[in-house]
């Protein structure tokens, strides 16, 4: 058993994120293509472009450390992305799939928020402020993406996606109230 060092923990976290981001770059086009909501497809495309920049930031961090960018297999991200891919394979394109994709994407975002927050704090603690600043930039983007996904989900769930059954139930209740008032 080797002695643990905070620097090693930071490096391990960065390597994990580097692999995770590369997995996300490969997954986002498939998610955008599966989406029926134009807003969701556009959000996935926008996040793909951000993610590509996030990969570059991680490469910049590795370079500043005097190391080649390298990822260690991020099994956590692999599992989360597999869940999203299963949805695409099992469900027809619909608003229901869109909301499922949003939920899957938000699990990914929450993993990233947690991971970036942890490595940013380690970098700050180790006096690596430039690294911490770059990680904070990505952390802010991940939080913003999570917020956008929530807004899109609320829009889908509040719109016609729920179906006409609820509208009919509401109309029936209103009709019953009118009948009661007239009686």
Features:
Ferritin, 6 helices, mainly alpha, 183 residues
Entry summary:
By secondary structure, this protein is an all-alpha fold. Helices cover 83% and strands 0% of the residues. The protein is built from 6 helices and no strands.
Descriptive overview:
The chain is elongated, with a radius of gyration of 22 Å. It has six helices and no strands. It is mostly helical and 183 residues long. Helix 1 (6-34) packs antiparallel against helix 2 and helix 3 (75-90) runs antiparallel to helix 4 (95-125). The longest helix has 31 residues, at 95-125. It has a single domain (6-182), classed as Up-down Bundle (Ferritin), CATH 1.20.1260. The chain has helices at residues 6-34, 38-64, 75-90, 95-125, 129-158, 164-182.
